[in-house]
Amino acid sequence: MNNSIPVVSKIFCSSTPTMLMIRRRPIVVNGGGFVVTDLNHNVIFVIDGCGILGSKRELMVKDGEGEPILFVSRKVGIVQALSTRNKWNGYSMDYQGKDKLVFSLTDPKSCIATSTPMRIHIEPMRHCTNWDYEIGGSFADRDCRIIDCTGKTVAQMGKKDLIGGKDFYHVEVQAGYDQAFIIGVMAILDNINGESTRC
């Protein structure tokens, strides 16, 4: 597919827009994450959070077969402690378990920086100079989107009011964009907002 924009891998890019359904796992049953299915209820991704991994700052995105494909962790350390923003790093995992930095996301960690948008940098840097993607809207209200540096919406989140309230929502990923990357960003937003991936 010539127009694909892989971050984790081109195998997670589709030639058509794709609707992904997200359902939070109950905390008491394999808690600490959520499951992503297609419209036919086939499991596409599984996200493990603190309840399974045991660490508050780590997330794992697995494919439908249960193989780890993306490891996400929040950066810590003295420099990070003095910063006004948290930094999350996403690492792609190969079949041997080796990881490679593929993106980083920064979010404000204090009320002083809340007017600053969440931004995502792809590694290695793409055609944009300061950032590649930006997150707009409200994850808590299930109404947020990911846009690229040209202003194009690449993923749009929505809620399913009739089924499960906040436990069930969807994300539409536009053609050519990496679905594993988008779900990794959703996992970070879930954690930032204190939802299913948090302890």
TrEMBL record:
Pfam family, one: LOR
Superkingdom of the source species: Eukaryota
Family, per entry: Belongs to the LOR family.
PANTHER family: PROTEIN LURP-ONE-RELATED 6 (PTHR31087:SF168), PTHR31087
Protein name from the UniProt record: Protein LURP-one-related 6
Species: Eleusine coracana subsp. coracana
